[in-house]
């Protein structure tokens, strides 16, 4: 066996200039064919088949083989061998240092076997050469390298020839191996990016499942317990659900809870805000469009229905659909079929439809603004969300949740809501429902500088004086009185009603605290009854 035989700088007596020119011409044509394969094909198997075919049909090599490292990096496995007349074993493997191919993997250097039959380390494992082939052929194996790392080998048989000819073929195969390595490297990068995206998708999906799981919806009032029961009843099927309620009551949260509690939870959950789009844009957004379907359609685009394939499509504010879109949506619900804008091809949709509205659909049906048949098709299983003023038992738990959320986001130590702030929130009528409550808490956390949400931290819309405050004009003296009552009440709460501890914290005497409890009409017995 000889490794890296020296390049000959002269032509042997058996080789003429015309033979050398013919060899170089075949190699150039093979490189062109390989470059075309790399440009025209995307699949690795197809590219390698074209590369091996070019080596055999144009260069005159035979039994060409590409082997690549296994995922664990311990051994070489056959990646491709020519299909034409091949009798090779595609399941053959070589460990590092095993045989000629294993030594190329281990050292990263090309190897030339002048005559296969005279090399005891040659394993003859893949192609099972007969006695004549072993006697009349040389074997050339070169590494496929990405940077300094050997990721595979390219090998071929060549008719027994002088050393300079074998070296020339070896150099040519090294060039081809470099082209293969670039393709392998690009695929590695793409695979790593795909794996990173999949891991990120799994992580985000896990977070979404944690956020939208029904048991994590805040609220334990009787109306909300009924909502949880409705979600549990409908989640496991494919029934169309209509979620109704005022703006800000959490319709999208309920839709997400249904999706992530259903068998479709591993598929996309796609939301469309129907009120935010015009009729033409909404149709394109839902069904997609073909290139040139309208003036601004410069490329083909898939619609939200196609994006939600296998999963759930949530149509928010469905009452704002135009009559044209209502007809097409009715076909989706009835036949599960649609066409893209500007295309005649009928497509099937495997999606579950969840819809939501804050409108009075019955009045819209009577007025002719909403189709009767569509109304009955989407109103299969209605869920009515209560307003926040109808579930006041949940205000404190919701407020605590939002305080923790925004304190964490703003990196502030806000841990409690004062009595005055609680009274203000309970007295308010909340026209914006849970969304308004969340905005108010965010405003209050931003203004808090002592770890407590005071009544003065809430937005002006909630600044409604209590009954005794309404009798007394809001003078400086009245405002001081309110502040004193809040400070003393909060101190007493922190120390579980201990007057001594509250006095120490506030820097006044115990007698002064008791006097203030009486003069400020603090309900000490009601707040701290044992």
A few lines on this structure:
With 530 residues, this protein is α/β, with parallel strands linked by helices. It is built from 20 helices and 17 strands.
What does this structure look like?
By secondary structure, this protein is an alpha/beta fold. It has three domains: 17-189, GAF domain (Beta-Lactamase, 2-Layer Sandwich); 213-386, Rossmann fold; 390-528, Helicase, Ruva Protein, domain 3, CATH 1.10.8. It has 20 helices and 17 strands. The protein has helices spanning 17-40, 44-59, 99-107, 131-136, 163-212, 222-235, 251-260, 279-287, 304-307, 323-335, 361-367, 372-378, 395-410, 419-427, 433-447, 467-471, 476-494, 499-506, 510-519, 524-528, and strands at 62-69, 75-80, 93-95, 111-113, 137-146, 149-159, 241-244, 269-273, 288-289, 301-302, 312-316, 337-338, 347-348, 352-357, 381-384, 416-417, 452-453. The strands form five sheets. It has a six-stranded antiparallel β-sheet with strand order 3-2-1-6-5-4, with helices on both faces. It has a five-stranded parallel β-sheet with strand order 8-11-14-7-15. Helix 1 (17-40) runs antiparallel to helix 2 (44-59) and helix 10 (323-335) packs across helix 12 (372-378). The longest helix has 50 residues, at 163-212. The chain is elongated, with a radius of gyration of 38 Å.
